[in-house]
């Protein structure tokens, strides 16, 4: 499978290390990668910039994910490869094709098949950008005080249309 990742001269040493680990995971050289805290955030950040996959077939990807979920021990590498190498719109199409095929939501199937930080990362990838931003804004208000950095990053880096979408989705979700 052709892996598409953004090329950026501003990646930190930790981000390059994460990319090396995930590449080794894809090749089968490493059986697992510890996805905790900062590493999880970096992986999600790297997946945001994935361009649309050119040879896209939602039905085939849905079938591959279904097979990966039903595989004994769950084929995590296949799930990660499919969902991280497609744009957000394509992931939504895959989720729709999966639901039409199996009569079950992809989110629920993945939630029962995965666990821990990987589950959080994969389920986050299934959200639309507006849903992800709305949930990040909600999470920034949890606990004592507010995570101003997250709020500022989201509010200042989105277009007017993007902010309207976030507002609409936030009201629907919460």
TrEMBL record:
Source organism of the structure: Saguinus oedipus
Gene encoding the protein: ANXA2_2
InterPro entries assigned to the protein according to its UniProt record, in alphabetical order: Annexin, Annexin_repeat, Annexin_sf
UniProt cross-references to PROSITE patterns, sorted A to Z: ANNEXIN_2 (PS51897)
Protein name as annotated: Annexin A2
Pfam families: Annexin
Alphabetical list of Gene3D superfamilies matching this protein: Annexin
Protein family membership: Belongs to the annexin family.
Higher taxonomy: Eukaryota, Metazoa, Chordata, Craniata, Vertebrata
Keywords: Annexin, Repeat
């Amino acid at each position: 499978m052709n892996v598409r990742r953004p090329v950026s001269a501003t990646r930190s040493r930790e981000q390059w290390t994460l990319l090396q680990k995930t590449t080794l995971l894809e090749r089968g050289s490493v059986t697992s990668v510890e996805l905790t805290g900062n590493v999880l955030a970096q992986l999600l950040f790297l997946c945001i910039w994935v361009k649309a996959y050119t040879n896209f077939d939602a039905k085939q990807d849905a079938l591959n994910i279904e097979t990966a979920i039903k595989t004994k021990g769950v084929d995590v590498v296949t799930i990660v490869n499919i969902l991280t190498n497609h744009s957000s719109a394509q992931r939504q199409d895959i989720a729709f094709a999966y639901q039409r095929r199996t009569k079950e939501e992809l989110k629920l199937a993945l939630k029962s098949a995965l666990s821990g930080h990987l589950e959080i990362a994969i389920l986050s990838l299934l959200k639309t950008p507006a849903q992800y931003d709305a949930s990040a804004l909600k999470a920034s208000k949890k606990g004592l005080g507010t995570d101003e950095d997250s709020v500022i990053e989201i509010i200042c880096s989105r277009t007017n249309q993007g902010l309207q979408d976030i507002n609409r989705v936030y009201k629907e979700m919460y």
